[in-house]
Amino acid sequence: MEKKSRRILVVGALLLAIWALSVNADDSEKTIVKTVKGKKMCTRGWECKDWSIYCCNQTISDFFQTYQFENLFSKRNSPVAHAVGFWDYQSFIMASALFQPLGFGTTGGKLMQMKEIAAFFGHVGSKTTCGYGVATGGPLAWGLCYNKEMSPSQSYCDDFYKYTYPCSPGAEYYGRGALPIYWNYNYGAIGEGIKADLLNHPEYIEQNATLAFQAAIWRWMTPIKKSQPSAHDAFVGNWKPTKNDTLAKRVPGFGATMNILYGDLVCGQGDIDAMNNIISHYQYYLDLMGVGREEAGPHDVLTCAEQIPFNPSNSNPTASS
Ligand SMILES: *[C@@H]1O[C@H](CO)[C@@H](O)[C@H](O)[C@H]1NC(C)=O
Ligand SMILES: *[C@@H]1O[C@H](CO)[C@@H](O)[C@H](O)[C@H]1NC(C)=O
Ligand SMILES: *[C@@H]1O[C@H](CO)[C@@H](O)[C@H](O)[C@H]1NC(C)=O
């Protein structure tokens, strides 16, 4: 008896040592710091591997882990979903690594970092949901149900761009991805952004979740027009509104991200369902991440009901649909 319990103790100690070793192996994620012209710059493992001021902060996987992704998108692999097995946490984190050194999910301290992930997913969830009023788990539990448009009515080839983004023979530019991409010119521009030949191979987006998330984060991080803020800049507070913006009731926050991404399809129309559905997803994710929806801030920051669109849809075909 004595001997046996001692053996268990030894085995236990050994297991503990192995566990401690494997925890130590995570030190690849340790922050390395240097100072460049008085500015603190860091790298932090594979997830934030360019020298950047943003890599001095926590990385996304420090505060957003697999179980949280599973909570947010709990119904995506249920049998009635339309992209079963496609979307996963690993693809999201891999894709985010391209953008964390630029500030995606790494700006402004932990609360802002968590809010940005919830906001980004608020858009993603509302654009990829198949949830409806009486769906099990509630309508908000069905984000990432799709990875493509199911019955496209056309191939979304706009001949106006035949010199810049010519449609590839046989390619179909219907909606695909986490923030669905439509039209040849959007596939072309986003493909340039993430260095993938999406103009000739739009199908990559429905075949590779990492690429699909990369495309969505690129859209979030990149202004539609050079003179305008990206959704990221508008959300984290990098963007300082001009006098015109103030007159147009455009203020930094979640509302402005909807204005940037969807313009008058969602904003400046009063209290419409299309807008409230996106906001509801954002609030739901804030709750599930333990941040709490009250952190979303006051109504005029959260909505875009009264905002004049940055880009009216009839004069700007590159506005995301
Ligand atoms: C990093 O986080 C701190 C708070 O922990 C914040 O004050 C700072 O602005 C963040 N750095 C960047 C570059 O956003
Ligand atoms: C998916 O895309 C990523 C990013 O470009 C790439 O690293 C990866 O190899 C691709 N996966 C497959 C299975 O092709
Ligand atoms: C402000 O708005 C006016 C009127 O719409 C426009 O003519 C002007 O160019 C705008 N200014 C800037 C800096 O965008």
CATH architecture of the largest domain: Orthogonal Bundle
Bound molecules: 2-acetamido-2-deoxy-beta-D-glucopyranose
Number of helices: 13
What is the level 1 CATH name of the largest domain?
Answer: Mainly Alpha
Q: Which overall shape is indicated by the principal axes computed on the Cα atoms?
A: globular
| Approximate helicity band | 40-55%
Q: What's the Cα radius of gyration?
A: 22 Å
Q: Structural class of the helices, strands and pairings?
A: mainly alpha
How would you state the average pLDDT, rounded? Answer: 90
Low-confidence stretches: 14-27, 316-321
Count of discrete structural domains:
2
CATH topology of the largest domain: Lysozyme
Domain Glycoside hydrolase family 19 catalytic: 68-294
GO molecular function: chitin binding; chitinase activity
Protein name: Glycoside hydrolase family 19 catalytic domain-containing protein
InterPro entries: Glyco_hydro_19, Glyco_hydro_19_cat, Lysozyme-like_dom_sf
Write the topology of this structure.
Blueprint lengths: L1 H24 L5 E6 L2 E6 L3 E5 L7 H4 L2 H7 L16 H8 L13 H18 L56 H11 L9 H4 L1 H13 L9 H6 L6 H5 L6 H9 L10 H16 L10 H4 L19
Antiparallel strand pairs: 1-2, 2-3
Helix pairs in contact: 4-8, 5-12, 6-8
